[in-house]
User: Fold this.
Amino acid sequence: MSSQRSAVNTQRWALIAAGLGLFYVLVRHRHSMLGLLRRKLFLFGGSQSLHHKRIEVISSIHESQHILNELKTHCKSFKVLGFDCEWITVGGTRRPVALLQLSSHRGLCALFRLCCMKQIPKDLRELLEDEDVIKVGVAPQDDAKKLSHDFGVGVSNTFDLRFMAVMAGHQAEGLGKLAKTHLNFVLDKNWRLACSNWEATQLDAAQLNYAANDALAAVAIFQKLSRDLEPRSFLNWRPIEFHQIRPKIEPFLDVDFTKGYTAGISNNSVSVSSSHPLTANAKQQKTLPKNKKQQCRNLGTQSKVFYDNCLLEAPDGELLCTIDRRKASWYLNQNLGTQISENPFTVRLNFEPAGRAVGDVGRYYQTPKENQCVVCGRRDAYIRKNVVPREYRKHFPVVMKSHTSHDILLLCPNCHQLSNISDNKIRNRLAVSCDAPFKHRDGMVKYHDDQQLRSVKSAGKALLQQVDRIPTEKVAQMQKTILDYYAGEKQITHELLKRAADIDCRVENEDYCQHGKKVVDMYRDKFGGLIELERVWREHFLYTMQPKFLPELWNVNHNADRLEVRASEGRVDNADLVVAGLESVVSCNVSTSKT
Assistant:
């Protein structure tokens, strides 16, 4: 009897021990296990939406109204549409876009057969141009350009899913691989389907599925990556709020992923190596040659201390500001100061400085700065970021170019690259508002080749180097070109040919406009002064990057406050205040002087 009790007790204790062990394992690994379960459930849900899709084919304008109304209704709750286009190529020439695919998060995919319509329906045009609705895909900017070229419709706020993948720490891949990785769904990327006849009288089932799945997968991938950007507990099953995601992707709307700015951006990488390849686009027509490497920026990072936080004091011991060790040593080497202490390294000046620390402006320069990324707090590698880019700052007056450490912040490589991408959007807006061409326009070229001079140069070089191989008629034509230009010459000589071959073809472009200078001039003369231009860039940085570790007292109005302090001390010219946009301070100064 006692042996039976002992066996029962042993079994009981074994069960208790096993239960405690299982409980310990569940508690210790609860986050990873629940996260894995949740991911599996989401993958299942994402693929289910693709399997249970609803495809609507629209071939005429009158058929489109009902479907467009339904798409707009779906966009009220989730302002994202999957976006893609299909076309055919005949004899090496691309035909106009034949099929436009738009899909909602509820599984509806509308296939608009533009090849069957004389024009794009008005409501469809409005939906494509709606800035509140994000159109997502892989390389959607390319498709948007084709629609604009073929039908004169603008597609607002396209977003390349590869940006979101990189932001979430994943690989930047084509649509097929993104769907496999994040949805566990295999898209049919057979080239025969991709290159099939999209202008056929009737599309077959394989074509319909191919076209619809691309757009539907884009929305599902966006939803999945949104969850990766906004981690939440396993029990929180509420859908991601769009207003939480929109600020994170705002800098990348209508930005071309293939420009190379994203190479090296990932949560796990530190370097920004130019050898990091960008993933090619999903469509064969959009891929780069295998032997051509994508260009990207190669930025040097530093892990050594950037802020030494040495102290600089006035002769009476009042703290003026924090400086780096090299600057502090310079004061000592020039016999302009005396070392007071080693830790912290403190130098006291031997002369009265031009100004003292006044107000919040002065306290900002007195406050020690942390050696970390101001956005994410990373401390192991960082790059200096000019919040107001140098291409604008270098055209400011001296008083606004000196002491600009306020606008030089530390960012880790990832955040630095993301910030650079967002800067392009502001640059383009400034280019339009200030009529200051930024790229791909004649005004950006300081010199251009004169065609007549180029013809003269080409003729001179050819007659000098290859006259024996040129037909007689062509030689006579080249000689005439040279003699027509050098009107005073009667015959061709060796010296004349050398003059022609060495002629400079470049002539100065009368319409040349340097983007940065033109923007600065416009803000100085018409848009409220340079203080306003500084504010534009600082507010843009705050909105797009949402920094969590900014130095204490960092302020979008810093320079305005600094100039007002200097004006009160008589250390700035009124002309500089007017350029800055501080006419009110000038008026106060004039009134005070009269009094």
About this structure: Confidence is low (pLDDT under 50) at residues 41-46, 260-299.
